[in-house]
Amino acid sequence: MSAPRQSFIPVHRHFAALAAAPLLCIIPLAAGAQAQVESVARNLEHPWGLTFIDKGRMLVTERPGRMRVVQPDGTTSAPLEGLPQIDAGGQGGLLDVLADSGFARNRTIYFCYSEPAESGSGNSTALASARLPEDARRLEQVKVIFSQKPKYGSNAHFGCRIVESGDGTLYLTLGDRFRRMEDAQKLDNHHGKIVRINKDGSVPKDNPFTGRSGALPEIWSYGHRNAQGAALGPDGKLWMNEHGPQGGDEVNRPEAGKNYGWPVISHGEHYGGGKVGVGSARAGMEQPLYHWTPSMAPSGMAFLKSDKYGKEWQGSAFVGALKFRYLARLEVKDGKVLKEEKLLEDLSKRIRDVKEGPDGLLYLLTDESRGEILRLKPR
Known about the structure:
The chain is mainly beta. 1% of the residues lie in helices and 37% in strands. The protein is globular. The two termini are 16 Å apart.
């Protein structure tokens, strides 16, 4: 039986600094499993993205529009100053954050968010770079390096996971904005796409649609619905997961210039029933490596490099489930998903992000009004 959880500390969500979360509560993962769960930090309002910086510290975003530094002991800072204007509401807000691979040298981070239109209505996903000084109180040199086009009046399907590739370029997942789903099959917009850019916002010369008339050069792959999880796999390639409609959540390994089908094909169906497009397959459109029906609502994704949990978990993909509230372990080999193991079902938390820390351990974000950073601790 799971150990009882300690009640939340009554700290107001807008206090300048949040109390450290004492590690009083350890919950067994499962009988005979390889890890336990402990709370690192609490009282975060809908945390969305997590990245590790220096001295054992982490940056965490809160969807309403705040970014905080979390110390190794769980002490959480006041919100950082210097963020741009964010159109928070519905699924929109401050979303993913990533420290540059050269952070120790250049103090650079990247973050994505729902950017309001300069005039009129509408919003879209934007990616910005910034410098985080040593005192970690305010972002400096904030620069928008990519802005999804066109702007659209919606509070849904922003996508917004950032991955740095081995060659130093950045991938960004972009949602179809829900009611603009047909745009996912068109190359003159960024809806329902994965884009690839250089760190200064320029377009890599080897992008698949560079120089093609009628196509936006940032596009890497298309035909996606709403990808909220992405990571580099053991093969060094980009892997991602995306929300299907009613069923048909997918794991894909997006390749340059390929079409992943939405909304022409899907293994799910429309909300309330009804076939999507032509069904589940069509020539020239890629099939997912793995899919969930009914939908588990996948979000953050990480591949475990370390052997801290034993060889069985090493190289596996871990995906957070928002709807069914568990952590999926996907066993992968030779670019294929062999099987799924469901972890943390008894915890019953919406797992928004998954990261491997510098210590080789897995860290999770729970998307709740009083969300937590959790750490999987080897027995």
